[in-house]
Protein 1
Amino acid sequence: MTAIDRRQLFFSGGATLAFSPIAFSPLAAHAASGPGPYGATPAPRQLAWHKRQTYAFVHFTINTFTDREWGYGDESVSLFNPTDFSADQIVESAKAGGLKAVILTAKHHDGFCLWPSRYTEHSVKYSPYKDGKGDIVGEMAAACRRHGLEFGLYLSPWDRNHAEYGRPAYVEYYHNQLEELTTQYGPLVEVWFDGANGGDGYYGGARERRKIDGHTYYQWDKVREIVRKNQPKAVMFADSDMDVRWVGNEEGIAGDPCWPTWDYTTPYSLEKANAGVRGGPIWNPAEVDVSIRPGWFWHADEAPRTPANLLNLWFVSVGRGANLLLNIAPDRRGRIPDEDVAALKAWKAIRDQGFATNLASGATVTASSDRGRAYAPKNALSQTTTWAARSSNRAGAWLQLDLPKPATFDVIRLSEDITKGVRVDDYAVDIRVSGDWTEIARHTAIGFERLIRLDQPVTTKAVRLRIISATAAPVIRNVGLFRLPDVLEEPGIRRDEKGLVTLRSPAEGVEVRYTLDGSEPSAASALYAAPFTLSDGGTVMAVARRATTGVVSAIVTQTFDVSPARWTVVSTNGEKAADLLAGGKFVGPNNQPLEIVLDLAQNYNLNGFTLKPIGQNLSVDEITRMGPPAGYEIWLSADGQNWAKEWGAPVASGEFSNIAASRSEQKIRFDAPHEGRFLRLRLPHAVQDKPVIVFAGLGIITR
């Protein structure tokens, strides 16, 4: 069966194109004049998923205790021993942030199981936690029920511990574990299947690379059958062939537009995942997964995002019709850290305050047309009723709100009734100023919910939604106008490869104050006006401040190490040596390891190095051929002549965890400091067995 055949079979019940006749009922007179579904529409489980909007990921396993992002699979079960685990505290933390569900990593790539699976000894059953009588999955499921949150589970297809991974026996094992998880822990709202599949691993002691075909190896038809049988209301997440798709990045940003529809007639790409497919025959909305900290698992040297930053992520995910899956990571106690909880609570407080009053309430609503009383214009103000324009009224349709009194707002909320499909393409929002209409926003795609955040508040007594283009007559509900509290996101801090530091203001008319001496910036600190040099490293602390109101952002701190401004490339087999230190696209040879020798200009006591993966600016052809490096080997020398036994054992070797999906800078710390001026880096192969290695920059860690 082809991928598209499987998808259409899987999406029976409303997720593919469906034009069902309307059965007779007492409301037949209204229904007959109402709009029928247009194009793809969501299945009931997908509609429930859309209404969830914002929920929590929880990454917790042996990695929490090894300070890794990906476990290799050889970790001892004795390492898993949280000192004060509290499922209630974790769930209450999620609830404090307004998150409506929790998805727990029951098994990550290292293969350690957070439940006492009968099919393996590599589980919590053989760990010190509760003397082997604990069940993290069961405790989390029960805590969610106590606190009114829904529950879901992540089960990694890849297992770097299992001896049979890559062979048929592992697939049976995986199906057995999925059967356990979907039958033992009550209702699940989502089952999450990660896209990382195959590579280096322990594999029962084999310590080798194993490659599988991710499309066929796991027998996804059987996987779907198990979930559908045991958890019919749960959506499934994966790169493709499931209810919900990946948004194509781990930065928390949905496309603009981000269509909830999909097809299998055009090639898959990260850009396609981010944007969706307008008019696609399959309902397959995007889920935006991002972590509150830089890593997915807890690391002591990382800090959580600020409430203002979380608010911005919410607007570029939920505000674009996607769902936000925000990761919160328990520490080694087995609790969400206090600073993370504080950020979650403050984030929710901003949203609660900003959306407490709908300034559109009480408006007189008129429209270009309607389909009768059941679809009257005033219905657009409700979350349960809709305004529907006549079938002939597509482009040029409009909806006007005349407010009881002038209102000041900076957020506009719009929704389509997605049970009738996605109908609106391009649209604008106008306000009346001194008797004339002025356009304040123009966008593409509404979908389940669109939140338009204006750069500055506007004041008016009349607002108009104007449909510029639509594939079917619009069906609109839930129009709202809101005023956020004055919250500033922290400034952006960036340093280029020449050591030049640039500070970015979060909004027009907002000043940035900064310090370089470790003191907290204030209104009296240096005012940023132009880039400055910080080649040898240092700490920049900055704050955004709206001078007219005195509102300030959270303080952001960025510590820089030595820049590559004085470095030289001694040798490399990459394509352009000059590009290696320029922060651009550095490309290795075809089907060969990439090797680099650098002169750092002086001796340093090195604690590690950094590697910056390439961003999303690769062509379709390059994406098929190129990928970031999967692993590394590194040597150091004081003179460039005497290396460790002439390329003997490297000072460090390992893998770049999660580099294929997360394009954030990789930081590799050595087990102990090593002195050297010359650095030799060998990158054996690219991720996903692509023939060419590509990345965007190197750095060193001396602090």
Note: The domain at 564-701 is CATH 2.60.120.260 (Jelly Rolls).
Protein 2
Amino acid sequence: MSDIKVALIGNPNTGKTSLFNRLTGLNQKVGNYPGITVDKKTGISKIDKDIQAEIIDLPGTYSLNASSMDEDVAVQVLSDTSNENYPDVVVVVVDIENLKRNLFIFTQIKDLGLPTILAINMADQMTLKGIDIDIPTLETLLKTKVALVSSKQNKGLSHLKKLIASYEGLDTAPCFVEQDTVLSKFAKDEKKKHHLETVRRYQFLKNVLEKTYSQDPQNAKDIRTLLDRVLIHRVYGYLIFFTILFTVFQALFSWSAIPMDLIDAAFANLSELTRTHLPEGIFTNLLAEGIIPGVGGVVIFIPQIAFLFLFTSFLEESGYMSRVVFLMDRIMRRFGLSGKSIVPLISGTACAIPAIMAARNIENWKERLITILVTPFTTCSARLPVYAIIISLIIPEEATLLSFNVQGLVLMGLYLLGFFTAILAAAILDQVLHITSKSYFVVEMPNYKMPLFKNVAYNVIEKTKAFVFDAGKIILAISILLWVLASYGPGDHIQQATEVVQQNHPSYHDEVLQAEVASYKLEHSYIGIMGKLIEPVIKPLGYDWKIGVAVITSFAAREVFIGTLATIYSVGNAQESTIKERMRNEVFNDTKQPVYSFATGVSILLFYAFAMQCMSTIAVVKRETNGWKWPLIQMFVMSGLAYVTAFIAYQTLS
């Protein structure tokens, strides 16, 4: 069996990744290009009984005029014969409705002398759109072979594989040849020379498509046109977007309430069963008081995380998210950002790490830097556990405003707060960093389509799994450490806890005595001592030392906050109760007032809205900016803003 290398390349939103998935199935792996942080996605495809192909999915790019890291990768792979990814054949993927724009990069690749196949995707739309293509003439003019495919309907792939298998017979001559006499006039002005060449390429493509491509205008006015007139309207577009956003956050609380309560109760019962049925000892206590509550503090939020990814995946798959990007570009430019910055800002609602990496597509360094610095302000999925449980503690579930759930309104408000803070921070940085040049914004408007259940489900499962396992590993390690620190302490205080409490409070019996003993042990443990040391700093924010410890540990990852509290509140607590109940019943030792009052809750929400609490994000910013200067500035400024905002909120509301 012989092996060949096949490179897939094309503009963004041409269905290139969907075609890659169809060709490779589950035989995929993701890595990095040597010496570069850009993702490298490869897969294996059985072309025929004798040929197996390694498919290389190159980053989506509009041309080979390298002005971004993604474009530079494509140029390096396609032009350097010594590159380990250098392909035997290139498949250029284009969209049936955007041939002129998509074919520009095809003409450039043909110049490289590589065997090149043109895959026209979304061919299932031809009849609906009234599109007709003269394939034989198109093949002649472009000096290539053409495959009409539909990655959505899994059509045309067999013909594409046959063309790949016979790649050695392809015409490798350029399809566009510029006359030297035309360009010689601008020989000394490379900028004008390159600009003229671009214009001439588009003129060539215009002539080609006039001879091979036709579309009935009557059929072109389909539902997409009608929807776009409304969804990207200067007024209605924003109203619809915020209505969708509003509906999503209402559903996040109402739909996830029952499964979250069931999971919370299940882990409380599991902890109690472990304590009851396993022999007494250190290991049992570690499981019941440390590991199970800590992990449960993350698992409880799986329903909300899954629903969030479900909604965002549905919007992306349907084609609506590209309209949101187009809409928000109008706002971005007023604050000194590139239109391309909206992609990292919106994707930051899932996770800041891939969002920051998505900023590589911004050519202008200062605009890219600003985008990297402000993206962590957008509310990521790691903040959702903190928001959800604090909101549920300080706002009654039955609270409504104009028949709408107040909990959902507050959650939506926090997401909007993060987004608009990012915009405001970008405007400030635009003035401070003195940005003088702007990049151009290009966005494809894909067709509206019914999301494929398989793609949505895969996206939800993979992203939720990544959240749970990434957070779970950190929380498991921290839970074990916290349990040890909360179970032991210097001297004989913990061993003598029962005796001391009985002497000081002889009237205490049974449950009250057990609760006081547990509290005494915790305060005299190592973690209690550490918490008391930082309490003067965090007390003005309305926090006790336990919340302070959770805040410190959550600088590793924000979602650790709940897991930390779950572990701390579980140590020595033999009563069966959920994490919500324990937090709701927590009181200050001196005043006996509830810890999680409205003022303290708002303070915590605002602190987590602004603080830079993710070591992985800091590491990515360091890698993307090639140094520690910007990530350190970012961390101290964001955390300082978080402290000041939380301080003002608590002092004002208490």
Note: The chain has 29 helices and eleven strands.
